[in-house]
Design brief:
It is a single chain. This protein is mainly α. The protein folds into 2 domains: 159 residues, Orthogonal Bundle (Tetracycline Repressor, domain 2), CATH 1.10.357; 144 residues. The chain is built from 16 helices and no strands. 47% of the residues are buried.
């Protein structure tokens, strides 16, 4: 952090720079999965309470992003993918990012507790702590399993949404968490396959750097196969149904096929076509998660209309 902090910051930060500090793309995924967790829960919140809950979960996610950028400014400056972020670009000072992250964290946790319940607030506080401290400050720079363990931070939002509505945690909430948790490694390892040099130059012990691309390809296939029963199992709970199961079967078939193709590829083949299959798998992984949660939302909509799907568990 010393080298980055010592840089001369030129120009004046604009509103968009502070928005970028909150990682809006990541925040959008957090908001969507948290919203689904809230809406599929068996307890209906007042629209104002529901809006407040999602707003403060989003603020908490943004706070985590700001704290991550503050601590990782030195790494971001050495990676092409992140070099234009506000701190390494020299438009936001590290101290500002830290202050914004801490202030928004406190605001989000306190206000979520007041708007909903203490369990939801506690889960949000733990999520921010886990992402900013356990993952960003420790795991990311220490172990090639960083994204496996650290993936828990991104898996909590639907559980927080469920807790905000019900004041409790159930099997459904745990399986929504598990779906994102198991999805995270193949998603990020696919990215790491075609951005390996970035992580290597930044000194981040991503699996592609410490064990090579061949081992990473095998890990992607293994985690994808382990993800399938979790995804399908969610469809057998009270929030699942025929629509979700049909969507999940199609998505998992495509995802497993993509992981199989990646595993069988030789590195020379991947280099020759510019990691085309790996990039396609990465894009598919985004659709995979979005469509699974979208299907849960569709099932919830049918139940609200009195056309609810079947429940097996």
């Amino acid at each position: 952090m010393t080298d980055t902090s010592a840089r001369q910051f030129e120009g004046e930060a604009r509103f968009g720079d502070y928005v970028a500090l909150l990682k809006p793309r990541v925040m959008s995924l957090v908001v969507f999965t948290a919203l689904v967790g809230l809406l599929v829960a068996p307890v209906r919140l007042h629209p104002v309470e529901a809006f407040a809950a999602i707003l403060f979960i989003a603020i908490g996610a943004g706070a985590s992003g700001a704290l991550n950028m503050w601590w990782d400014a030195d790494i971001d400056a050495r990676m092409r993918r992140t070099a234009k972020r506000p701190i390494p670009a020299g438009v936001v000072e590290p101290g500002e990012a830290l202050a914004i992250g801490v202030a928004l964290s406190g605001l989000a946790v306190v206000m979520l507790g007041l708007a909903t319940n203490l369990l939801a607030a506690a889960l949000l506080a733990f999520t921010i702590f886990f992402y900013a401290v356990i993952y960003t400050m420790w795991l990311k720079r220490w172990t090639p399993q960083n994204i496996v363990i650290g993936g828990a931070a991104g898996a909590f939002p639907p559980m927080i949404g469920w807790a905000a509505a019900t004041g409790s945690i159930s099997l459904e909430a745990v399986l929504m968490f598990a779906l994102i948790f198991m999805w995270t490694p193949p998603h990020f390892w696919a990215l790491a396959l075609f951005t390996r040099s970035d992580y290597a130059e930044a000194g981040v012990p991503m699996l592609t750097v410490t064990h090579g691309r061949s081992v990473t390809r095998a890990h992607i296939l293994a985690y994808t196969l382990a993800l399938v029963p979790v995804a399908l199992g969610l469809g057998l709970t009270s929030i699942g149904g025929p629509i979700y199961l049909a969507v999940s079967l199609a998505l998992n078939a495509r995802f497993v096929l993509g992981a199989w193709r990646i595993w069988r590829r030789e590195e020379t083949e991947a280099e020759a076509d510019g990691y085309r299959a790996e990039k396609l798998f990465f894009r598919d992984s985004l659709a995979y998660l979005f469509l699974h949660f979208g299907a849960l939302l569709a099932e919830a909509g049918l139940r609200m209309l009195g056309l609810g799907g079947a429940t097996w568990l």
